[in-house]
Amino acid sequence: KRVVCLAGDGIGPEVMQSAKRVLQVVERLYQHKFHLQDELFGGAAIDEAGQPFPARTLAACLASDAVLLGAVGGPRWDQAAERPEKGLLALRKALNVFANVRPVQVDEAAAHLSPLREEIVKGVNFVVVRELTGGIYFSFPKERTAEQATDTLTYTRREIERIVEYAFRLAQSRGRKVTSIDKANVLESSKLWREVAIEVSARYPDVELEHLLVDAAAMELIRRPSRFDVIVTENLFGDILSDEASVLTGSLGMLPSSSHSESGPALYEPIHGSAPDIAGQGKANPVAMLRSVAMMLEQSFGLEAEAQAVENAIAAVLKAGHSTADLGGTETTVSFTDRVVQTME
Amino acid sequence: KRVVCLAGDGIGPEVMQSAKRVLQVVERLYQHKFHLQDELFGGAAIDEAGQPFPARTLAACLASDAVLLGAVGGPRWDQAAERPEKGLLALRKALNVFANVRPVQVDEAAAHLSPLREEIVKGVNFVVVRELTGGIYFSFPKERTAEQATDTLTYTRREIERIVEYAFRLAQSRGRKVTSIDKANVLESSKLWREVAIEVSARYPDVELEHLLVDAAAMELIRRPSRFDVIVTENLFGDILSDEASVLTGSLGMLPSSSHSESGPALYEPIHGSAPDIAGQGKANPVAMLRSVAMMLEQSFGLEAEAQAVENAIAAVLKAGHSTADLGGTETTVSFTDRVVQTME
Ligand SMILES: CC(C)[C@H](C(=O)O)[C@@H](O)C(=O)O
Ligand SMILES: CC(C)[C@H](C(=O)O)[C@@H](O)C(=O)O
User: Fold this and answer.
1) Cα B2 from Cα B39, distance rounded (Å)
2) A178-191 burial string, b = 16+ CB within 10 Å, else e?
3) How does it assemble (chains A, B) (predicted)?
4) What is the pLDDT of residue A107?
């Protein structure tokens, strides 16, 4: 299995180091061989190669079985001709990973850190499925004059259909409920979105479909988050709502994500950013990255037992009271990873 | 002073009744004369006149000194040719009320109802200034075929400038900090927005300007809401974020809003919806509507003492432990209003 590792910027290289160690343990314990290939990406690639997503990195990703990403960006590159984020958008488009999947689950170890009252976050367990390669991020024309600027938001029936299908299939393996989020009282693209969602739902009679307007959804995520099972929404709404949702859990450092195409390699990354303020200090929580590794083992390689072993080891270490500073603990990125590795062994 | 009253749908007529009673008390106590004129709007107008914003209502609003709005919409009109929301958008555009102002303040009486932990919501006091007549709500082309749908998001420099100016002037009378929210790492319109915000800020050296990406803002509103003073953002982001922000306070039934044009009549309305589930039962909390009245007295008519009297009466009644069911109390819309009226007298 060829895995391209894009460590990226800030704390990216530190958590990527953890990921590699855990993958090596999986190799040893379960007799697998992962070919791990480092490539330049983001600000690091701007520094070394003059652009955030060099052709060599692109070629390696396309030829891989899965891509692991640390984090990109930082104030250092704010004035760059092409910013690190451009590279991220280009990577998503190149891999055609239209389905971004973000599980939102409240860990016992972090529940006290949630800004929400305990009775509201208790038992929260849902997944946000965000459309990742369409909408206003990628539509044309984008126009800019001195006097005005224009963005375009286009969705095709096909684009909506495949992401909604993805959400329904996921819901079948979970709580059998899909919440489709749009702004159908204002946007043409949302009207089409809602129509297609209704059409798709007819093919999944065992899954309940509800519609929510994006403004109402922003409220419901805080008021009654336990009502959600699978949320599906378009690119920009998904950006906003998945970040809002991640705060519920009390630690951004715990949440993984995966992004899937129809057939090519998938992309796995923690939802947290590059956190330049704590970079290089060994403070980063590696859990989000390690859980992204677990998602890769299961979803790209079908290695369920191995994925479960990683998840179980993380849970056991947390349960034993060990955690990094973001959760109030005293572990470093390395010492926390040591404990996960020891537990697995 | 001519005030057009658009009671609208659901609980709209009930809270409008409270507003009128309080305005009559203000007339009597302070020797003013308000000419209150009822007009059809929303679903009620669809039922009576076949459309949500009849020409007669438009003419009355344009000829008024201020417009009070209850609430519009409800499932009954979901299949209408023109839905009630269309009327609301047309009203905003007709009055050219580009600046929607929503104070977000945590009342002691409702703090225990906030889904957020007490230490996080304590002392929260900020204002969301939402651009209300531009952006993706009103830009063209909007296109729809069987296979795809397109919306357009355009902002002109002038549109951005006037709303950002509005926010800076407001900040001068408050905490002297403006948080401008955009998605400048992806959208052309946001890049222009950010440029103009920086230009405008040069004219207000006494006010601090910070920029926040919309996804980060959705997180910060829950993580550290007390960091905000004046938030300014474009129409759709403002729709999402102001609704998210309103949940912090624990009761949507408490929050007023005002919408201002450059010179014509302003529009005042509670932020809550028409709540068809409790309509006609006397359960609606009239506080948001009464506070909208107080905003009108102060902002449209310069009647500061009168506005303060309304605010003080509401605060006193709440402090004495009287509230409607949404706050855990036993008052009805009418009996709560009785108490406010008695306190004022
Ligand atoms: C960096 C940015 C372009 C990106 C996005 O908006 O998609 C980020 O916020 C994310 O959610 O991964
Ligand atoms: C009803 C709808 C069109 C409206 C909006 O999106 O502006 C509402 O959500 C609001 O915020 O007043």
Assistant:
1) 13
2) bbbbbbbbbbbbbb
3) Homodimer.
4) 80
Stated pTM of the model:
0.97
Q: For residue B304, what are the CA distances in angstroms to B25, B99, B157, B211, B295? A: 15, 21, 34, 33, 9
Q: What is the mean pLDDT of chain A?
A: 96
A107 tagged catalytic: no
Distance from CA of B51 to the nearest CA of A (A): 16
Q: Residues lining ligand 2, CB < 6 A?
A: A 185-186, 215; B 85, 88-89, 239
Please give the Cα distance from A267 to A246 (Å, whole number): 19
Yes or no: say if A113 and A251 are a contact pair by the CB < 8 Å rule.
yes
List the single residue in B83, B149, B156 with the smallest CB-CB distance to A147. Answer: B156
Lowest mean pLDDT among A106-110, A204-208, A218-222: A106-110
Topology classification of domain B1-96+255-345: Isopropylmalate Dehydrogenase (3.40.718)
Residues of B in contact with A240 (CB under 8 A): 214-215, 218, 237, 240
User: How distant is the alpha carbon of residue A234 from its chain centre?
Assistant: 15
Closest partner CB to A137 (pick from B148, B153, B186): B186
Look up the CATH number of domain A1-100+256-345: 3.40.718.10
What is the percent of chain A where pLDDT is above 90?
A: 95
Cα–Cα dist B116/A120, whole Å: 9
* CATH superfamily name and code, B115-248: Isopropylmalate Dehydrogenase (3.40.718.10)
Gap between the Cα atoms of B134 and B3, Å rounded: 26
DSSP letter assigned to residue A331? B
C-alpha to C-alpha distance for A256 and B88, rounded to whole angstroms = 41
H helices present in chain B, as ranges = 12-30, 43-49, 55-62, 84-95, 108-111, 118-121, 157-172, 188-201, 214-223, 235-248, 287-299, 304-319, 333-344
Confidence of residue A108 (pLDDT cuts 50, 70, 90): confident
pLDDT of residue B211: 97
- Mean pLDDT of the region A217-239: 98
Ordered DSSP codes for A19-78: HHHHHHHHHHHHT---EEEE---THHHHHHHSSSS-HHHHHHHHTSSEEEEEE---GGGT
Q: Would you kindly state where each structural domain of chain A is located, as residue ranges?
A: 1-100+256-345, 115-248
Tokens of B343: 């306190």
CA–CA separation, A115 vs B122, rounded Å?
A: 12
Query: Which B-chain residues 197-216 have CB contacts (< 8 A) with chain A?
Result: 214-216
Residue nearest to ligand 1 atom 8, measured at CA: A239
CB contact under 8 A, B153 and A153: yes
Which among A64, A73, A5, A21 has a CA at the least distance from the CA of A42?
A: A73
**pLDDT higher than threshold 80 for residue B132:** yes
Is B65 a residue of the active site? no
Q: For residues B66 and A89, what is the distance between their CA atoms, to the nearest angstrom?
A: 47
3 state DSSP class of B23? helix
Give the rounded percent of residues in chain A with a pLDDT score beyond 70. Answer: 100
